[in-house]
Amino acid sequence: MAAAGAGSPGRLVQYVVVRSDLVHQLSWPLGAVITQACHAATAAVHLHYGDPDTQRYLEELDSMHKVVLGAPDEAALSSLSESLTQAGVSHKLWIEQPENIPTCLALKPYPKETVQPLMRKFKLFK
Question: What sections of the protein cross the membrane (predicted)?
């Protein structure tokens, strides 16, 4: 699936999935959680910089589209990462250091229709 979107005319989107328990149960400051999402998104783009979809996404600088979803906890985030890996979906699981805490993940940019079915069980981050 990683190369399936190359050259596809579909709208490119970068999905970011953040653990909502960091804010709602563990009382992390919202700014710290947003920072985690920024780290993951930047890392995913960097790791897949040469990918044709990533290049097209970056060329459309003023119309980038991101969707930020919430995972209820670390187990759900880790399970999603494993499912994405098994499906061949390129992503970066961000693990905050030195605490070694998985906080979020970001996919490289994909045509929305390619990855949306894998993300359906997650709701927009609140």
Answer: none
